[in-house]
Each structure stands twice: as structure tokens, then as C-alpha cells.
Design goal:
The chain has 335 residues and is of the alpha/beta class. It is built from 12 helices and 10 strands. Helix 2 (57-66) packs across helix 3. Strands 9-8-7-6-5-4-3-10 form an 8-stranded parallel sheet, with helices on one face. A two-stranded antiparallel sheet has the order 1-2.
Length: 335
């Protein structure tokens, strides 16, 4: 397993991170515990969750799974989405972030969170209030580092600059959607992260399995896939153009003797500014198949082939469709 030091934080992370959105939905607690222990044994140190995953149950399961191995792990969790009916049950205000952090600490059964992150930007709250609240959590020892997720580059940089003006450490990470089918963060976010030293924890590096060749066509979706089970924004991402591009990559990988799922994650892992892509295995078997990526290097000869499937900075699937600040949908030609 490779390890990488975050430029703005005195900490190393494993080059693969476990995402827990599947915990309790559909992965059972017993299976999740086995998965967490296997990940730790393989050298994975970073585990990402959120206060709204399975209505908080994912945090509880992760906390119980880590148990007396807490010191071996780095926990990242997120707050923003509604967890109740009150004004301070959502968003990035001082009151909301204090309440969310305390609740996450309780569910996780820990005294501190390694990375406390904004799940989405909140344009109704001044960035100075948000960054001040995050710094208060750091000063109180409740969070070691802070970050953001699926935020426009300019808003993340605003947070960096506000913190800098006050002498606060500020954001050390950003967690964007990033895969071979949606490369738009390469236009602004990646250069900003490189310039200002933020580490990226990209989500959906396999493009919901499309890059593994799991979709025969737009309508023929695996029964247990998120597109089939959850629908909504997940189904929207599975366009005919995206499936064609995903299958083209899967063929490319197989033609060169590679496992498509491994190679798709490896591509993200080896991109500039990336600290660790988030993988979300549902089973121990899936995790076992992905662990070798931690020591892989993406073949340089295949880079031009990937760029032909989806050129740098472009997209054939819309993985930003969960971001309120990017309302527009992609217009993808089906020819």
C-alpha cells in the first residue's frame, strides 16, 4: 500500500480510502465489520463516512467496527444535509456545524474526528462564519483537520483565503466526484489544489461500475446497482453515452491484460493532487479485488487511449448532479 502526505496537514494517508455509504444500505453490520478489519490489515488507514449515510447508522457501524483499533485509522466524516426539522439541523452555520460534530462524535464513539468536512457548500452562510466554526472545532480537539466536498473551486479557495487571513490552518482536503467519465475538475479544482496544497479524496472513481463494464446498456442495469436500487441522481448518470464510454474503457483494460475496475481506480489514484480515491466495496470479496490497486501504477502507454475515450477536462457523464451549485445537466449526443 502506498502512503501520501497531505501538503497542508502533518499526516499521511493510504493511497486508497474506504467509503462507507454502503454500510447498512445494503452491507450488513457484520459484513461491514469484517470489511473494515480486512482494510486495516491491508494497510488502508482512511475511512470516509457522513452523518446522513443510512441516517447515521454508517457512522455507528464504523465506530463499532474500529473499536480498539481506532488508533490505526483516520476517520473522515461530513455534515451539511438535513438530519432533522430544525434550522440548525442542516447547513454550514456555526450552530449547525457544532451540533453535527458533537452528534457524529457520539455515533462514532470517538473523542475526535480526523477530517471533519463540509458535505456541500452553503451559500447562505458567510464563509467567515463557517471557517470560524470549523476552527473552533479544531481548537476544542474535536477535529484534527477540516475539508470540503463537491464544492466549486472558487468557493473552496475562498475558504482557504478566509482561514489564511485569520491565521487558521483551514481546509486541507477537498472531496470531488472524479473518474474517467467526468473529468471536469481538471479545469479549475485540480490546478487550485496543486497551487494551494490541498489533497483530493475523489469519490466514485469507478463511475458506479460503468468503467468496470457492468452495464450492458443504459436500460439493462445490474439489479443491485445504485442506478437500479436508488434511482434518481444515480440513474441519471447512466446515460447511453456514459455506458458506451465505460464499456470502451473496460475493453481497453481487458485487451491489455488488466482488471477494468482496478485500472479505473488506479487512473484516479495516479492523477495530480489526488491523495486517495474513495472505494466503496459492498462485500469483502469486492474489497479483496481492489486492494492491489494500492501498489499499482497506471500504464503510461494507455493514457492517450483514455484521453480518446473522454478528453481531459470534459465529461460524458454528470457526476456533479448532486451539487446544487451545478444545476445544468450535460447535453450528451447519442451518436
Amino acid at each position: 500500500m502506498q502512503y501520501r502526505r497531505l501538503p497542508r496537514a502533518d499526516v499521511e494517508v493510504s493511497s486508497l480510502a474506504i467509503g462507507t455509504d454502503n454500510f447498512a444500505n445494503p452491507t450488513s453490520e457484520a459484513d461491514a465489520i469484517h470489511l473494515v478489519h480486512a482494510a486495516l490489515d491491508a494497510g488502508i488507514t482512511l475511512f470516509d463516512t457522513a452523518n446522513t449515510y443510512a441516517r447515521g447508522e454508517a457512522e455507528r457501524i464504523l465506530g463499532r467496527a474500529l473499536g480498539d483499533r481506532r488508533s490505526e485509522a483516520l476517520i473522515a466524516t461530513k455534515a451539511y444535509y438535513p438530519t432533522g426539522p430544525n434550522p440548525d439541523d442542516r447547513g454550514n452555520s456555526r450552530a449547525a456545524l457544532r451540533k453535527a460534530c458533537d452528534a457524529s462524535l457520539d455515533r462514532l464513539g470517538t473523542d475526535y474526528i480526523d477530517f471533519f468536512q463540509l458535505h456541500r457548500p452553503d451559500f447562505d452562510v458567510p464563509m467567515e462564519e463557517t471557517m470560524g466554526a470549523l476552527q473552533e472545532l479544531v481548537d476544542a480537539g474535536k477535529a484534527r483537520f477540516v475539508g470540503s466536498s463537491t464544492s466549486p473551486a472558487w468557493r473552496t479557495l475562498e475558504g482557504v483565503k478566509v482561514a489564511e487571513a485569520h491565521g487558521w490552518p483551514g481546509f486541507v482536503s477537498e472531496q470531488p466526484p472524479y473518474n474517467i467519465l467526468d473529468r471536469r475538475i481538471e479545469n479549475e479544482l485540480v490546478p487550485m489544489a496543486l497551487q494551494f496544497g490541498l489533497g483530493l479524496f475523489p469519490w466514485s472513481p469507478m463511475a458506479m461500475g460503468m468503467l468496470a463494464g457492468r452495464y450492458a446498456d443504459q436500460t439493462n442495469r445490474p439489479p443491485q446497482s445504485r442506478a437500479a436500487v436508488r434511482g434518481g441522481i444515480y440513474a441519471e448518470r447512466v446515460s447511453s453515452a456514459a455506458v458506451r464510454a465505460g464499456n470502451a474503457f473496460a475493453r481497453l483494460a481487458r485487451d491489455h491484460g488488466h482488471n477494468p475496475a482496478q485500472l479505473a481506480i488506479c487512473w484516479v489514484k495516479d492523477q495530480p493532487a489526488v491523495a486517495a480515491p474513495l472505494i466503496g466495496p459492498k462485500t469483502l470479496e469486492q474489497l479483496t479485488g481492489l486492494i492491489p490497486v494500492g501498489d499499482m501504477t497506471f500504464p503510461e502507454a494507455l493514457i492517450p487511449e483514455v484521453d480518446r475515450i473522454c478528453p481531459p477536462g470534459s465529461a460524458v457523464a454528470n457526476f456533479h448532479n448532486s451539487a446544487e451549485w451545478m444545476k445544468q445537466q450535460l447535453e450528451i449526443a447519442d451518436n
